[in-house]
Write a sequence for this structure.
């Protein structure tokens, strides 16, 4: 339940009851602290899930992402899998940071043979507030719920932090401010977000991570998710990086955008692997770190019509040919963006696109039930 809904229910209670609710945040804080039992659960072995290509597994994640609840995403995932003959084994969903962890929804995804991947968005909280501990009671409550679920999850805090379009992001003035007025100004270039720095983001990430560990939520794969978009005045990605001990996967977002033209898009392999691509930037900036961390394409899609089948083919080929990539997440959504542009990333925009997805999704290395992965310590020690 989000804080907004908590406040609404509290106000409603004041109307129908003589008992005063008081401050909803304080009530929630007291309740959440009481809900954190001092228990020890069996530790989830994340090793086979962290590096599915290690130990002879060689199984990539075939992921999909939808708007809506985890249950709604699971229903769409199931429908897609039935048509293609291969069920995606990772389901990503988005949640406002500060709410409750949807244990029921995440378990439904897990029990259906997929890894739940929750992308949390701090839509109201400032980075300096998080660092200062103002919202620790919310972090600990959420982390306790994740811990008590007893299942592995992938988790991202404030994705696409290097972009100028989210309030927790960075104001690249050349893209988000210069020559723009009103709502056209990048969200990170408005109000208190203007003070955001890469170090603040890294410190906020570390603080959230540390609070999870204090509660004992060790069943989490931490996904650090930059966007492939760039601005001339954008800081180097390494400045946003919280450190090796705080990150399990690099989850890059990169879309094949067309703007109505079929010949002007950059294929996904160029966005990631080509000169100036995100993978090359990471390798250079982090002094060779990137190849040692698994890379998940955490968000991608193509809004083409004629070229979408070719884009799907290229995406699968990019993941399968590169040992550092462990899979991708297709954003299977048609939406209208803040600028008023409608983008259609749906797979089924044409029979040819659907046929391409079905063909390449059936490849045996993609997908598979994450619960079937077994960690082979001997094989891992031999570097397989």
């Amino acid at each position: 339940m989000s804080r907004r809904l908590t406040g609404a229910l509290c106000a409603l209670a004041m109307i129908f009851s003589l008992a005063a609710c008081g401050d909803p945040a304080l009530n929630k804080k007291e309740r959440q602290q009481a809900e954190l039992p001092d228990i020890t659960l069996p530790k989830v072995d994340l090793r086979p899930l962290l590096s599915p290509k290690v130990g002879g597994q060689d199984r990539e994640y075939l992921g999909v992402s939808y708007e809506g609840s985890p249950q709604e995403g699971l229903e769409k995932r199931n429908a897609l899998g039935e048509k293609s003959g291969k069920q995606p084994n990772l389901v990503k969903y988005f949640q406002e940071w500060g709410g409750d962890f949807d244990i029921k929804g995440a378990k439904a995804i897990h029990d259906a043979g997929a890894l739940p991947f929750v992308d949390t968005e701090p839509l109201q909280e400032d980075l300096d507030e998080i660092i200062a501990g103002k919202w620790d009671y919310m972090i600990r409550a959420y982390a306790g719920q994740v811990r008590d679920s007893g299942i592995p999850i992938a988790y991202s805090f404030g994705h696409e932090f290097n972009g100028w379009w989210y309030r927790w992001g960075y104001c690249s003035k050349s893209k988000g401010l210069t020559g723009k007025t009103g709502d056209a100004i990048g969200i990170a270039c408005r109000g208190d977000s203007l003070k955001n720095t890469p170090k603040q983001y890294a410190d906020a990430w570390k603080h959230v991570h540390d609070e999870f560990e204090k509660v004992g939520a060790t069943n989490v794969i931490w996904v650090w998710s930059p966007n492939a978009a760039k601005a001339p005045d954008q800081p180097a990605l390494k400045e946003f990086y919280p450190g090796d001990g705080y990150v399990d996967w690099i989850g890059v977002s990169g879309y094949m955008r067309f703007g109505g033209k079929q010949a002007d898009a950059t294929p996904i392999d160029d966005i990631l692997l080509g000169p100036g691509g995100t993978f090359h930037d990471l390798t250079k900036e982090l002094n060779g770190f990137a190849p040692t961390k698994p890379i998940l394409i955490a968000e991608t899609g193509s809004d083409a019509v004629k070229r979408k089948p070719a884009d799907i083919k290229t995406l699968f080929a990019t993941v399968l040919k590169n040992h550092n990539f462990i899979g991708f997440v297709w954003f299977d959504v048609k939406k209208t963006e803040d600028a008023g542009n409608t983008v259609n990333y749906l797979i089924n925009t044409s029979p040819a696109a659907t046929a391409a997805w079905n063909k390449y999704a059936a490849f045996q290395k993609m997908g598979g039930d994450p619960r079937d992965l077994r960690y082979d310590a001997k094989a891992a020690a031999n570097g397989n």
Remarks:
- Residues 35-381 form a domain with the TIM Barrel fold (CATH 3.20.20.80).
